[in-house]
Fold:
Amino acid sequence: MKTKKYQISGKCNSLGRWKTLSCLVGVGLIGALTDSPVLAQENVADRGGSSYAPVAITESFESVVKRMKAVKGGVAKTHQDLLEMRYDLSDRASEDANMSRGKPLQAGVRVKLSEDVSWQKLASMKAGEIKEKGLWPKGFLPLPHPDHAEGGMIFPKYHIAELKKQTGRDLQRFDLDFAMPDQFLPEYPPAIYLTTRPDMGDVSQGEVVTTDNYFVLFNGLLNPKQLDGLRLLVSPVPQQQFNLTDDRRSLRPSMGVSCFDCHVNGHTNATTHLAGDARPQAFRRRIDTPSLRGVNVQQIFGSQRALKSIEDFTEFEQRAAYFDGDPVIAAKKGVSILERGSEVHAMAELQSILDYPPAPKLAWDGKLDPEKASENEMRGQKLFFGKAKCASCHQAPYYTDGLMHNLQTERFFKPVMINGRMAKVDGAIKTFPLRGIKDSPPYLHDGRLLTLEDTIEFFNLTLGTGLNEEEKGDLLAFLKCL
Structure:
């Protein structure tokens, strides 16, 4: 394999993008790029030169648009090559598992292995041996943002089209498009279930809730405070890429994004972003938007932030995360200052009644009803709470323990730069609830696992459970019941 070396520029990378590993540039990082989408890296700097992005942009907006459009195709191809190298992206629907409103779940293990190794052989090896031989599946490494150096929110095309039709807002970026194929995303629009009215089932009426229809859909169903909280959750506010300033990433000035633009209908549409917590840029984690269903039973919020209340999370998102955690940028672009005692509280109250989808085979304790479950589902439950070690973190009835855990995946691979994302140490990650898991692909905090089968293989290796093929099938059957 050929290896080329580049000096990374302080303003843009070899593709001419703004904010390329700008934090790494401050220490004079020299990168080694290979012909493979996975990039080898030597002497990686853990600290950047500055935590602050430039506020006053000296390049004209027209020049930025022209420059970024010129390299857009190359950026897209680089990420697409990575996805195709890692995964089988074919459309293979499950024959026995659909999401709440009928979209089929994708079936099968999609993470690709090296030709000379099988899942069984890999599971029989020690972590150190896998690391030394470089056999850790590429699809199990952190998944970078489609343009990790640039980052920012990217919305699925169908959501962009629906918002434009309903409200006239346009969340299309001129520099990037959403990359993950539609078949691996949650169904759209997602169902809405309320803890206050479980008798009504899905109350979405098949609509995407926006400022145009929220009142018609929910007046008479929510109390006035909840209704006002919903109004705020669907109201757009300025955000890093979508705002009125000349360093936005939309062609037209924008009023911004709403909470429900990512958490559509209180669930998710798998909108991609970067976590605002870490620096430098290469160490920031891609975010797969989590569902808001069942936040009433959760104790911490954010994949690594461990915020302690829904109110904290709501306020943090709009005042910090929307602007990459940079208050100077927020002040420039128009931060939304929410009033804690009324606005934040109303938004949190609405989020607190978003429920999980019905699970007909589960009893009151969250475990299978033996009279309704099949034999392989019951075997899968036994594995879940036993040999597979899933319940070490995912405890019934909602299949979370409200904690963060460090899987120490760095045992299996050597640090590597992947399209601008430094894969080194994941650290502790929140235990996300598994109730309604069928409705929330792709999986893991950054969406690196496309199917439930991928997820089973990932944890079979990281937890060292040694499941055989029959046991994996039984465990999958149980997960589909949740």
Q: What stands out?
A: The CA atoms of residues 156 and 446 lie 16 Å apart. The chain has 14 helices and eleven strands.
